Amino acid sequence: MSESSDSFQDDVLAELGEDRLAEIAALAGTDTTGARALVGGSVAELSGELRQAAAEPGSADEVKAAVDEVVAQEPPLQGVAAFGGLAAGGLMAGVLAKLARPAANAVAKRTGLPPATVARAVDLLVPVVLAVLTRRAAGKKGGGLGDLLGGGKK
Question: Is 147 helix (H, G, I), strand (E, B) or coil?
Fold first, then answer.
């Protein structure tokens, strides 16, 4: 995994906080170390799904519009409790919601955890990922998806 991907995962873990991490650990029937691994795998999978959607002709325009909306958004979301972008139904929230199921299925297959359990964990992560993307966008005006996720443009 690249350093920038780790950084994105670290940002998501920091935004998630210990209480939400403990909630995911309880949901998955594991400890916080296992929950961190589940979150890391889920974030990596969501990032990969987002990059893949950006590269596919059928979804590239939607992803670009969602990234543009996140980059233009003012002010950035503050903390997991401020789910304004998700609750408001922003484009990125919709894109992430569509990608959550395939990401959860891939993580479940790789980890052996029940798909329904992983899907619930990923659903908990979607607003956190949105908050991190929004915060990163505020600090990198004019960047694209690669800049938001780290690792350059794809």
Answer: helix
pLDDT in tens, 16-60: 999 999 999 999 999 999 999 999 999 999 999 999 999 999 888
Helices (H), the chain: 3-28, 32-55, 57-72, 84-87, 91-111, 115-139, 145-149
Q: Decide: residue 83, CB within 10 A, 0-12 exposed, 13-18 middle, 19+ buried.
A: middle
Interhelix angle 91-111/32-55, rounded to 10 degrees, is 120
Token look-up 């974030």 returns 43
pTM over 0.85: no
144 touches 27 (CB < 8 A): no
- The residue among 139, 148, 12, 127 whose CA lies nearest residue 75 is 139
- What are the Cα distances from residue 88, in Å, to 19, 27, 32, 131? 24, 27, 31, 13
**DSSP assignment of 111-132, as one string?**
H---HHHHHHHHHHHHHHHHHH
